[in-house]
Amino acid sequence: MSHAAPPGWHWAPMQAEHLEAVCALERRAHAHPWSERQFAEALQAGHSAQLLLRTAASPPDNLPDPEDFTLPDGRLLLGYWVAQAVLDEVHLHNLATARPRQGWGRLLLQRLIESAEAQGAQTLWLEVRASNQPARALYQQAGFATVATRSGYYPAEGGGREDALLLRRCLHALPVATPPAQSEPA
User: Fold this and answer.
1) Which residue, 23, 105, 21, 33, is CA-closest to 68?
2) Is 95 part of a structural domain of the chain?
3) Does residue 3 sit within a domain?
């Protein structure tokens, strides 16, 4: 099932000219944001990175402040994800939206799942802060299951560390080997 963007919305691959708006959104979305260099390195390494965009001329319902997340071509950045494919797995490294609880995260995640399946991936992996209940709920609704805890994985407020939950979603069922048919004794 394809989850196309609604009318006036667009998918686009993240490119270097988008990084100013991406980093502005990243700083607002995360307490410990990626730097522009980290995004640039991900793009140079060939990681998949998609943007969810909306034309600025679209009605302004629940849109971010256009001055914050406007791309050079005038479209508004609603969210993005960055993921890395390794063999038959895809690892989500970063996902953010310009405004929480608008359904944009679900749309981005659906697009990531479809992209991973199109690449032939068997498994999709991600880490999430143990304290991030809204993200955990989103991932659970999308079929992810917690498989491990990574102690002290994320930096936390006050210089401490916070645990990450390692989540997995199986994308394609692996074929089960069928034993060879045994012939009847003659």
Assistant:
1) 21
2) yes
3) no
CA 185/CA 176 separation, integer angstroms: 27
Number of domains in the chain: 1
Task: Indicate the pLDDT class of residue 186, thresholds 50, 70 and 90.
Answer: very low
Strand order from edge to edge, sheet including 89-97: 9-13, 48-54, 76-86, 89-97, 123-129, 161-170, 145-155
**Which amino acid is located at 151 in the chain?**
S
Q: How many residues does the chain have?
A: 186
Q: Give the pairing type, strands 161-170 and 123-129.
A: antiparallel
Q: Per-residue pLDDT tens for 39-94? A: 999 999 999 999 999 886 555 555 555 556 888 888 899 999 999 999 999 999 99
Whole-model pTM? 0.83
| Catalytic (active-site) positions | 127, 139
Q: In the numeric block, which tokens belong to residue 46?
A: 């060939």
Which residues belong to the annotated binding site?
A: 132
Residue 131 belongs to domain spanning: 9-170
CATH of the domain at 89: 3.40.630.30
In a domain, residue 179? The reply is no
Other Cβ atoms closer than 10 A to 88: 14
Q: Which residues, listed in sequence order, are joined to residue 54 by a DSSP beta bridge?
A: 9, 76
Q: For residue 34, give the amino acid letter.
A: W
Binding residue numbers for acetyl-CoA? 132
For residues 77 and 64, what is the distance between their CA atoms, to the nearest angstrom?
Answer: 8
Question: Does residue 42 belong to any structural domain of this protein?
Answer: yes
DSSP state of 31: S
